[in-house]
């Protein structure tokens, strides 16, 4: 509760990234974050494929990593906004609580007990989704493979 705002934000980022894929740590996982960094580097360089240590990364794996990260960002963002709108606490405190719950870290600024019951249920749901969700989603995405027998016309929307 006495941490500096910058320290809270850095801790939020580290909690969101989480630990290794083989461990029990929560978050989106270090490998997912690293893969997304390699995807960005390849895109900036204009490379057709993403390579890591002389190995090409399949585009399905890249899309799975992007899906896991964006769903995690969405869950944390929406939960933080809902708690901001319904409680008297500040952004830094709530973002820390929400990120800690999603990443199943167990750290707190001390406001969890003072949240309304519905706010505590949001944190409980985040803990469940943060632990079970990414594993289940990646498994479902990997197992779900259906092919189309046709291709739709290509479109190039303006980006940036």
How would you describe this protein?
There is one protein chain. With 160 residues, the chain is mainly alpha-helical. The chain has helices at 5-17, 30-45, 59-86, 91-102, 117-143; strands at 50-52, 55-57. Helices cover 60% and strands 4% of the residues. Helix 1 packs parallel to helix 4, helix 2 (30-45) packs across helix 3 (59-86) and helix 3 (59-86) packs across helix 4 (91-102). The longest helix is centred in the middle third of the chain and has 28 residues, at 59-86. It is elongated.
Write a brief caption for the model.
The protein has 160 residues and is mainly α. The chain has helices spanning 5-17, 30-45, 59-86, 91-102, 117-143, and strands spanning 50-52, 55-57.
Topology:
Blueprint: H1 5-17, H2 30-45, E1 50-52, E2 55-57, H3 59-86, H4 91-102, H5 117-143
Antiparallel strand pairs: 1-2
For this entry, give a set of tags.
single chain, 160 residues, mainly alpha, two-stranded antiparallel ribbon, elongated
Rounded to an integer in angstroms, the radius of gyration calculated over CA atoms is 18 Å
Please tell me the overall pLDDT: 89
For the biggest sheet, the summary is: 2 strands, antiparallel
Helix-strand topology string: HHEEHHH
Strand proportion, as a percent range, falls in under 5%
Structural class: mainly alpha
Give helix % range: 55-70%
Query: Could you state the oligomeric state of the chains shown?
Result: single chain
| Low-confidence residue ranges | none
Give the terminus-to-terminus CA distance: 38 Å
**Biggest β-sheet: strands ordered side by side in the sheet:** 1-2
Query: In DSSP terms, counting alpha (H) and pi (I) runs of 4 or more, how many helices?
Result: 5
Find the count of extended strands (DSSP E, 2+ residues): 2
- The gross shape turns out to be elongated
